[in-house]
Specification:
single chain, mainly alpha, elongated, transmembrane, transmembrane helix
Length: 44
């Protein structure tokens, strides 16, 4: 592989994995509040 291809691969990997890590950190800091969701409908 050429050096340019390796650099582009590293940039792509950092973008994907960095986004995943940022999403996990964001959910850990601000979890979704289950209490604010409406109750499921009751079937009769």
């Amino acid at each position: 592989m050429s050096p340019i291809a390796i650099i582009m691969m590293i940039i792509a990997m950092v973008t994907v994995w960095g986004g995943l890590i940022a999403a996990i950190v964001n959910l850990a800091r601000h979890p979704e509040a289950a209490e604010s969701e409406p109750a499921p409908p009751v079937e009769l």
